[in-house]
Design goal:
single chain; 27% helix; 41% strand; disordered N terminus
Length: 293
């Protein structure tokens, strides 16, 4: 009788533990953009290319400051997402080839839910950073790593899960009904790019191809799963976000993004632009590729 009771207690506690570790998907989020850190020749070539300025997307040039250090940025706006291209100088000095994959929640002010959902998969430190723009506040969750000022800089890649403040949406004139339903990337990009987006070719990101080290793989994988991605042999698929292909490499000289596929707003003639030995743009039909070497 005593042995039966012990077995029952074990089954009971195991079932309780199983319930305790049941994972919860985070708030609905979209892959809004990626960051790619470029050498000066590539950065200047993209910045000054007539096709990129007038046909590919809406090109915005800006300088932001992180920890007092400047980040020299190009924003290439598309219909459903954008590319954030930064110069390997200032804040990004000596980090050519680095990258970031950035998701934003559809509803504002839910950064605590984002943090808690990510914690289910990542057991090291996560930290919320708050970035204040002139008319918005953006909360960002990232993995925290102790920095070593004596260690040489090298390419890195990391995930960034973000949520805008409710006041930001109000400042942009977004109605309460849209806020309640969840802001789509289409509405977000229309609010940013305006009428200038109408005839631009860049529509949306479609595939990301990354080469990451083993530590970065653990971190990025842990960020994708609470978003709702499904994993199979290094391929991460989602019902509405871009497919992400990840290979593991300890080679510190390789760019973190090898290829980025995107959809075009309309069919294009076959076109290739070599910006530098490190970056090429290829367009064909209704798709295109950025290739980074």
């Amino acid at each position: 009788m005593k042995s039966i009771l012990v077995v029952c207690l074990i089954v009971f506690f195991c079932s309780c533990n199983n319930k305790a570790i049941e994972v919860v998907e985070g708030p609905a989020s979209d892959l809004s953009h990626i960051d790619v850190i470029l050498d000066s020749a590539t950065y200047e070539a993209i910045k000054n290319d007539p096709f990129m300025q007038t046909e590919f997307g809406v090109l915005n040039i800006d300088t932001a400051y992180y920890g007092g250090k400047p980040s020299y940025d190009l924003y290439l706006l598309g219909h459903l997402s954008f590319l954030h291209l930064s110069l390997a100088k200032g804040y990004w000095k000596d980090q050519e080839g680095s990258g970031v994959v950035v998701f934003q929640t559809r509803r504002p002010g839910v950064i605590d839910s984002v943090l808690n959902s990510w914690k289910q998969y990542y057991h090291d430190s996560l930290k919320i950073y708050t970035f204040k723009g002139h008319d918005f506040v953006l909360d960002e969750v990232m993995a925290w790593h102790k920095t070593d000022s004596l260690k040489p800089k090298e390419p890195v890649i990391f995930a960034n899960l973000t949520s805008y403040s409710a006041d930001a949406y109000k400042n942009w004139g977004i109605s309460d009904s849209i806020v309640d339903a969840g802001l789509s990337l289409k509405v977000f990009m229309e609010g940013w790019g305006g009428d200038a987006l109408v005839n631009k070719l860049f529509y949306s990101l479609d595939e990301l191809h990354m080469a990451v080290n083993s530590v970065e793989f653990i971190e990025i994988r842990s960020a994708l799963l609470p978003i709702g991605y499904t994993e199979s042999d290094g391929t991460f698929t989602h019902r509405y976000n871009p497919t992400i292909y990840i290979t593991t490499s300890e080679d510190k000289t390789r760019p973190k993004y090898s290829k980025v596929k995107f959809r075009l707003n309309s069919a294009s003639l076959e076109k290739e632009i070599v910006f530098s030995p490190h970056a090429t743009l290829k367009l064909r039909g209704d798709e295109g590729w950025f290739i980074f070497n």
